[in-house]
What does this fold into?
Amino acid sequence: MIRNKRKTGSKWHRAFLAPCLLLVGAVAHAADADRQQAKRIHDRLTGTPPSNQMIDILEPMMSDPVAAALYVIDNNPAFYNVTLKNFVAPWTNEAQDVFVPLNDYTATVIGMIRDDVDFREVLYGNHLYIGQGVSPAYSTTNNNHYEALEALGPVSGDLSNTSILVHSPQIGLADSATAGIMTTRAAAEAFFSGGTNRAMLRFTFMNYLCSDFEPLKDNTRVPDHVRRDVSRSPGGDSRIFLNNCVGCHAGMDGLAGAYAYYEFNEATGALEYRDLTSAKFDANGVSLKHNINENNFKYGYITTDDSWINYWRNGQNKLLGWSSAAVLDENGHSYGNGAKSMGYELAHTRAFSTCQVKKAFKAICFRDPDNYSVDRTQVNTIATDFENDGGNMRNVFAKVAAYCKGP
It folds into this structure.
């Protein structure tokens, strides 16, 4: 009897099967990689593990990971109810605390991202998002409406549901007085309460241009808008003002004049705008806080209206990438009146676009982008897409998630 020499363990058999086994292994590895990447995209965007059914849907989509990320965003309410809520909450208070109740600022940002509203309008649009049919109704004097909406939970209070969180014009303000989230009640309580209204500008730069004032300090700017409450010789030494204080105040005070007509009334809990009947405003409708401590330097700038001028368009801060679509004076400074036009000036900078991508990157990738690696190129690419895509922030999150999906 002739025996079959092609035994399973023979060298011939192993040599014949080896390429096939490698091919099968490669296919299995690729499939496993797609599945892991799909899971990672879901985890990063929602903070929750995907179901097997969701993974089965996402795995074949991994040839286009941006589409997969958008599918997750559109089909898992946790992106809006958890990820975005935690993303925005620190912007709404000076302590930058994430553990604050839902408010009109947070809800409005979430609604704008969900509805693909041009996100640049977050600093100048007439937008407010409220809970449909939620009791108590929205109030300009307290946050009870949003705390009640949050208490409904992720089903009855689902912020991804367009029938629950609905768009409205801002209540109690004329359109010309609205300036995106800067004129929400929560922002007013945090940044227009007390002080001199400079806090609103500082935290707007921090939250939307990703820069505090210290890196923007430029002692070469014109100081003619620095208010009277700023001493020109702190501690009796004028060099401190000339070498330190003026670097921030020259640019800051020029822009902060846009807030001259705003005040937060702690007694009523409401944002007030140019209320000539209130003791908090002068005869021109300027909030009294803009001209306090006049004896610190009586020759300083006196605020008489809500005009603003941008001295930071020139000098080192030209690198913020200001838009060319602006009215300029003979010295190349843009100018205007009110928070709406000033918000437009800030929102249409390159710094605004890259800041939104960097913030989304940190939230989804769990790290800051590395300026010395391919991260920087990716941030710039997504920022350009953001500008060319009508300020679509939902797409920014999807593209960042696709980039950070891992190998």
Notes: The chain is about 45% helix and 5% strand. The chain has a mean pLDDT of 93. The longest strand covers residues 128-131.
